Amino acid sequence: MVEIEYNNARVKLGETDLVYEPAEDSFLLADAALEEAEPGMRVLEVGAGSGFVSAVLRANLENVRIIATEINPHAARCAKENGVEVIRTDLFRGIEPQSPETRFDLILFNPPYLPTSEMEKVPGWLNYAFDGGTSGRETLDRFLDKVRVYLRPGGKILVLISSITGVEAVQEKMEGLGFAVDIVGRKKVSFEELVVVRGRLS
């Protein structure tokens, strides 16, 4: 059993050939989430994978309600084993919009952001962790089109993207949807720069 220790959290990974192993993108989003999250918040992590980011938040913040979603059944099981309350679903499906119980102060998403052709797809469930469609933004665009109805007034989102995905295109879309947009995290990793973009509703 592979385990990762990070910032007071210990995360079990289970079958790592079926679940995305936390890497630099996961660490960067976790650090940004710790900066943004506050006691008393309701937090949703979309596409939680192993539950790494949610587990780091739980280990460092008291009185925070964290719910996660994940489409990969192996990853959802792993997240649950790491103490994360997880709903196995695609993005927001299965979460009723407009209900007070499903409006959040902070929503986190580390989407699949690699531009991916049909020939480049990874077999099986792990493909959901990497495949961002031909633009690298297909899953992120679906997320952004729906996320507002799950936010409380003044709510925030944090999304992790790569320079190869098109940071400016993501910022422009978020601004067009009514978010005030800032970059709150950056890290250069080999051929790309990882970026955490924050969107805040007024």
Question: What gap, in angstroms, lies between the N and C termini?
Answer: 44 Å
Return the structural class: alpha/beta
Shape: globular
CATH topology-level fold name: Rossmann fold
The CATH class: Alpha Beta
Fraction of residues in H or I helices: 10-25%
Oligomer: single chain
Q: Spell the H/E element sequence.
A: EEHEHEHEEHEHEE
CATH architecture descriptor name:
3-Layer(aba) Sandwich
In CATH, the homologous superfamily goes by the name Vaccinia Virus protein VP39
Beta content: 25-35%
Average pLDDT taken over every residue: 89
- Rg of Cα set: 16 Å
Our count of domains comes out at 1
Q: What is the total tally of β strands?
A: 9
**Helical stretch tally:** 5
Spatial order of strands in the largest sheet:
5-4-3-6-7-9-8
Instruction: Pick out the low-confidence regions.
Output: none
Largest sheet: 7 strands, mixed
